[in-house]
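Sample log: Methyltransferase domain-containing protein.
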Amino acid sequence: MPKDAAVYTHGHHESVLRSHTWRTAANSAAYLTGHLRPHMRILDIGCGPGTITADLAELVPQGQVTGVDAADSVLERARSVAEERGLANVSFAVADVHALDYPDDSFCVVHAHQVLQHVGDPVGALREMRRVCAPGGIVAVRDSDYAAMTWYPSVPGLDGWLDLYRRVARANGGEPDAGRRLRSWALEAGFTDIDITSTASAWCYATEDERAWWSGLWADRTVASSYARRAVDGGHATEEELRSIAEAWRAWGEAPDGWFAVLHGEILCRV
């Protein structure tokens, strides 16, 4: 598979958007928000349904935010979010992170959340993000790390889920354990050690409502999303195996002592 031809593993099934629309600047970009200033121009790459994008726009009221995504269909949802919130300083467009249609030095901040794990050439993507970021600006990236995800109690079917997901994602040209690689990729892209600030943070699901939400969306995603189709079509799992994994997710979600943590790597790269 060519480096720039990776397939987005999840697609935009309702179970995927259920997760993406939960994301905010507070729960997904806190490592960045303290560096924002009211006048800044921000490029939000892989913006999806636009909830983080809209939050960023509210944080730069005298600035401008441009949200871009490879999938035109999801941008209609993003535009609706911005319109519902009355935001006049945000716009959306289709774009490829490997070849951004913007001049050099166009933005104060270039942000990507859960993007590099899905692209075929993350180093090339970081170089392109750096190109459109103005001197003195910030390239900000956050990605989960599937191998570092952990949960309790032990449910054998979830071990199977993790193994399957990582195989499907890599077959699609991505790297599911991206979080731990961000600093390495940034160095390869030309940032120096002194340019990069590396941090980590986690999402944690432990209350009854959180467990029901997280387990339900993954149970549905496992049998009904593009990920499910690619798992079967790629010969990684049968439909019966997917149903068994979905049942394991629901079993974990019903455990009163259930706990699940999603670790993320984060980098702030000064240009």
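Observation: The chain has a mean pLDDT of 95.
Observation: The chain has one domain: 14-270.
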